[in-house]
Each structure stands twice: as C-alpha cells, then as structure tokens.
Amino acid sequence: MFKRFFSFAIFFVFISWFFAGACHALTVSAPTIMNIQPGASEKERIIFGSTEKGTDVFIFLDGLFVGSAQPGRELGADKIGFSFYLKRDIKLDGRTVTALARDSKTLIISDYSASVVISGESGRASGEGAKEVPAPTLVSPNISAVIGKSRPTIFGFARGGNNVEIYIDGVYAGDTGTTSDKLFTASFTFVPASDLAVGQHQVYAVAKNDQGQRSTVSELLIFNIGEKLPAPILEDPIINLDNSDLPLFVGLTYSNTSVFVYVDDQLIGQAKVENRDSGVTSFAYQLQQPLTRGGHLVYTVAIDKKGKESDHSNYVYFFAGENLEPVITEEAVTDIAEAQNESDNELAAILDQKGSTDKDSGGMINEAKEKQAALKWNIVVFLAFLLAVIGWIFWVNRELIKEKRKQNQSDNKSAEENKQDKLI
User: Are 201 and 169 in contact (CB under 8 A)?
Assistant: First the structure.
C-alpha cells in the first residue's frame, strides 16, 4: 500500500513539474522600453529597449502599429537590446509608445510593455542615468558629399574612455571600441563591416561608459552612397637611367578629378591631371623622394570634386634604384673569354669528327658500288644457266615427240598388213 502511494506521489510531482515547465515555456515576457531619444527634428524619435532572446519586437504609437524594431546587442544571458527609428509627419511630443514581443518559433505574443509618453526631453524611461554620459558628436560623412565607397568612414568625437555604438538606418552596425581615456575628448572612426546600397542612409551614435550607462543619441547624419567613380588606369613607371630611384608615374583618368598615388600602401602625393573636354585625360606624378632599392608596388585612387571616390587602379610592380645598363667587370670579361675558348675548342672537335665521318661515308659508298657490280654478274650467270635448262627441256621434248610419231607410224603399218591378210 505504501509503495503504491509513493509511486503515485512521484508521478503527481512529475506531471506538475512538466505542466509548470510547459506553461512557463508558453509565456513570453513583455519587452521594456528603456530610452526614447530625440531625432533630427520634433517629428523623429529613436526608441531603445530590451527583450528576451529569440523574440521579435513590435512598436505601437497611440495603440497603432508603426513597425518592427531592429535587434541589437546582447544585454545578458537571456536579454537582447532593440532599437526603432520612429518618423512621422506629426509632432511626437505627448504621444504614447508601447511594445510587445513575439516568440520567433512558437509565435506566442507577450503582453504590452509599460507605456512611455514621448516628451521634448531626452532620457531613459525611468528618467535618470543617461544624462551623465555626454552624447558623441558625428562629423562625417557629410550630406553634401556623394560617397563612392560602399563602406564609408564614419568620424566623430566622444568623451575619452567611452565606447561608441554606431547605428546605420536604425540598425546596430557595430562599435568603435573604448576610446582613449588619456584625453577628455577623443576622436573615433568606424567603417561598416558590410557594403551599403546605393542611395540615402542615416547614421547616429550612442556612447556608453564602463559602467554600462548610455548617452543620448547623437545628431542624425544623412549621407548618400553613389555609383563608384571609374578607377584610373596606371601605366608602367618611366624610370630615368641616371636617376632610377625617382620614377615618373603616368596613366589615364577622368577629367576634373584628383589622382592620389600610393607606393607600398603609403600615400606619397597627388598627381597632376590635364583636364580636357573629352572626359578622359592623362595624369603624371614625379616622385620627389628617392625610394629604397628593390621592388615596390604602386597604385592610384581618383576623387572628384563632390568627394566621390573610385576603387584603386591596377597594381604595377617595379624596381627602384636598379642600374638599368649592364656593368661588365674584369672577372666577367675573363669568364667570357674562357667560355669563348671552350666554345672554339668544342667547335673544332665537332668539325674534326665531321671530317672523319665524311671519309668513312666515302669508303662505304665505294664498297657498296663494288658489291652491286658483283651482284650484276651473278644475275647474268644465273639467267644464262636458266636459259640453258629451258633449251635442254625443249630438245628432250622434241626427241620424245619424234619417237612417238615413229611408233605410231609403225603401229599403223602393222595394222594395215593384218587387215589385208584377213581379206586374203
């Protein structure tokens, strides 16, 4: 009885644990709106928050769906950040923002998050914390420039010792790493890890200190990615015989562009471009400082007046500091003379061998002629013998024919005599 009760208790505990886990797995926690930052105008806001991993976040403005948030960085073992760039044709002050999460696999939806009222002041939803970290300042790219690079360099300034997060088109693109803490204000640069499509893009930045506190959003910069400028065509360097370590670099490019010359991946100067109405023109650059002796790699990059940049030109490998005219030393002369003497001796030996070969060839020809003459006499003797045998055969046959005729005549005569005797 006790064993049966104990087994039932264990089964009950297992069933309770199973259903409790299943119910927990079938629930999704509501996301948290952490920060709403102002954008470039009063009609733009940037929303930051956190949610469970493996969930999608949907943003609502005054109860109406406005879009899906972009996932961001991990915020812990089971949390991940999100961001949403909100832009409307109306003023956003005083409006309410809420969010809900949906499990990416089971599609189970959470409850709505706590609502946050948009105000003209920036800060966390809780009201404090982020103001302690100054927002970074973005300097480039500039809206007036049409960038030819698909991965533009983003440059700006932030408080020294802070890490700067970069967001392009509302999506987290990466961070700059901790800036130098030796300076009160430090510069930073960031290059996207993937190519940006041709067209208009937006970028903003958020600074974070070593305690995890985040700044307000930086000013929003808008820039354009244009089609790349055609790359220049670089010819082989022109090297002066008297000064081979100062080559002249020449090539072709489009008019109204600036051509920059790089040797061994180091910028060494700007080439002179002859502008023409045809659209294609030549450029030239005379190296000012001598290069070290040995091989070098050169290429060029063109930039137009709008800041549009090309890919690098073709690479050209060349040698600098090398004497272009061969120098013959005394040792080389001696080696050449010895080689000439050896060549002459080898030639004489070859000629002697050829003479002996000719003599041997002549003897072989005479011997062959003699053998041919002897063969002719043998053939004549053989033909004479063959004719004699044939004549003897004809003579024997003739005699045999004569005897055969005589025998036939004799037989006929005897037959007639016998026939007459019978008649008598």
Answer: yes
